[in-house]
Write a structure and sequence with these properties.
By secondary structure, the chain is mainly α. The protein folds into 2 domains: 75 residues, Rna Polymerase Sigma Factor, Chain: A (Orthogonal Bundle), CATH 1.10.1740; 76 residues, Orthogonal Bundle (Arc Repressor Mutant, subunit A). The chain is rod-shaped, with a radius of gyration of 33 Å. The N and C termini lie far apart (82 Å).
């Protein structure tokens, strides 16, 4: 066992000068800035407790090994979920469940509205939107399946999605095509 006078002298002369490097290490490896001073003190306490059995020959490596292990242990403890939290979450599930029916009804209404918007699109445009957005086909796959060009698919998806968004937001949902004079002036419909 190391006596307190020798331990204090070692700590003052070899550990304290490493504090700026220790603080930088903690800041780099810990997300919560408010915890840093407490972490430093915890590390110092562990360093002193360990050094009572014998002062380490390589103070720097010893200090940073203790710091690394302490941060790892602290992070592991932070991932453990308490029984109180689980009980609180169970109550939250009941609270959230109260709105399940309302959410389901809202989702069904939105789905019906989207279907109505799709139904308003011209047939070819509706097919392109369905294949691209619902079935998830690529532009090339959609073009091949419908026997049309990739450029046509891109134009139809743009027009169809604009009309669908317009309808979902309460508009008419009609496809608006730019005229050649609107393209030249840079203005566009919908």
């Amino acid at each position: 066992m190391v006596d307190d006078v020798a331990l204090s002298a070692w700590f003052q002369s070899e550990v304290i000068p490493l504090e700026p490097a220790l603080m930088a290490f903690i800041r780099r490896n810990w997300r919560v800035a408010e915890d840093i001073p407490d972490l430093r003190q915890d590390i110092y306490e562990r360093v002193l407790t360990g050094a009572k059995n014998g002062i380490p020959t390589d103070t720097r490596n010893y200090l940073f090994a203790v710091a690394r292990n302490h941060l790892i242990n602290r992070a592991k403890r932070g991932q453990i979920v308490s029984f109180e939290l689980v009980a609180d979450m169970a109550v939250m599930d009941v609270e959230i469940d109260r709105f399940r029916t309302e959410r389901q009804l809202t989702a069904r209404d939105e789905l019906r509205r989207a279907q109505a918007g799709l139904d308003r699109l011209p047939e070819k445009c509706r097919e392109v939107v369905w294949l691209r957005k619902v079935e998830g086909l690529s532009t090339r796959q959609t073009a091949e399946r419908l026997g049309i060009s990739i450029d046509t698919v891109e134009k139809q998806i743009t027009l169809g999605m604009r009309a669908l968004v317009d309808f979902m937001l309460g508009g008419s949902g009609k496809i608006v095509r730019r005229t050649s004079s609107a393209r030249q002036s840079g203005s566009e419909g919908l």
